Amino acid sequence: MAAGALVASLALSACSADGDGGDATSFDIAVSNATEPYSIPWLVGKDQGFFEDRGVTIGDIVPSKGGGTTVRNMLSGDLPIADVGFTSVLETQGSGADLTVVGGATQSVYGLDFYSLSSNADIEGINDISRWAYTNPQSVTQALTFILPQVAGATQPIERVSSGGVGEGVALLEAGDVDVAVVPPSVVAKTDKFRVAVSSADYLEKFQQSVITTTPEFAGDNPDTVRAVVAGYAESVDHIRAHPDDAAQLYADYIGIDLEAAKTIVGKAVQYDNWGAGFNADAIEQAVEAQRVAMDTDDLEFCNLFHDDFLPDDVSDTLPDECK
Predict the structure, then answer these.
(1) What distance in Å separates the CA atoms of residue 98 and residue 216, rounded to the nearest whole number?
(2) Cis ω on the peptide bond leading into residue 4 (within 30° of 0)?
């Protein structure tokens, strides 16, 4: 998404925004791979009224492509706020674009396991992979194709293939054109055609898949709206932890899967501490390192992206040591 997420990238598309500095308080949410767990906090927040209680109306959840697409749309003025793949933000930062990270979102690699075909006996683990699919350039999944082999100590030549999306990656895998691809939990829940070749969480405990992002101009003109979005997300995460079965029911209804499968997906996401509205130093540091490996550079500034002015008081606001 994004992640590369699959990337996992979510975007908040403004249905109403005053270009003269008035509050933008009505949003659609464009979610990269909207059928995956990235959408769950937004579903919960909308259902429970956590955004409306703070004066923000959430409209539809709209599918969006991963990689840098959402960032480019935001910078063009189409999207005032985005919950977008962190590696895309880092890539954009390197090009000189002006962005502000106002909150965390997805902070684990849950949902980003790489699968082979169950029938392919040649692919047993990470050392057997020679053709590795990721979704889009600048995506979390692309960064993972670099950092996972490095952490695992795999040394074989690897050809990395951009599929254009999660579904397209699964199609390449089924056609035998790649050895592995990300297969999202919603698909795995419905079939036994795929087998885990690389469990990303075996190598990376924390990983900042996505961040809630806006432009400095929008944050300056609409600080209360930005705070409302981040606080609503934080309350949604707390609600999921306290009521996972309720979140699973919303998710099952939204994507049309069996309730027990949805409970498994939500339960694992909670187990991996998948969502968080605040800043997590370990998750950020690991994602930055992955992007440095993917870009083959040590020169990647990121500390100036993060602004904790919009975080609720009860969430983490830690940054990596190099930002202190």
Answers:
(1) 7
(2) yes
CA-CA distance, 241 to 273, in Å (whole number)?
Answer: 9
User: Residue 108 corresponds to which tokens in the numbers above?
Assistant: 């684990």
Q: Residue 283 has which token pair?
A: 């998750």
For residue 301, CA distances in Å to 34, 88, 89, 281 come to 30, 13, 11, 15
- Please determine, for residue 14, whether its predicted confidence score (pLDDT) is greater than 50: no
Tokens 């006996």 belong to which residue? 121
List the structure tokens of 248.
């699973």
Contact 83, 5 (CB under 8 A): no
Instruction: Using alpha carbons, select from 94, 12, 74, 37 the residue that is nearest to residue 288.
Output: 94
Please report where in the chains the tokens 């981040």 appear, as a residue.
230
Q: In what order do the strands lie in the sheet with 114-117?
A: 181-182, 114-117, 194-198
Range in 85-89, 99-103, 300-304 the model is least confident about:
85-89
Yes or no: say if 133 and 178 are a contact pair by the CB < 8 Å rule.
yes
Q: In terms of DSSP bridges, do strands 194-198 and 131-134 run parallel, antiparallel, or are they unpaired?
A: unpaired
- Which residues partner with 213 through β-bridges? 82, 101
- For 162-219, what is each residue's pLDDT tens digit? 999 889 999 999 999 999 999 988 888 889 999 999 999 889 989 998 898 888 988 9
Global pTM exceeds 0.70: yes
Give 233-297 as a 3 state SS string.
HHHHHHHHHHCHHHHHHHHHHHHCCCHHHHHHHHHHHHHCCCECCCECHHHHHHHHHHHHHHHCC
Q: Which helix (H) or strand (E) holds 14?
A: strand 10-16
Span 267-287, average pLDDT: 95
Written as one letter, the residue type at 201 is A
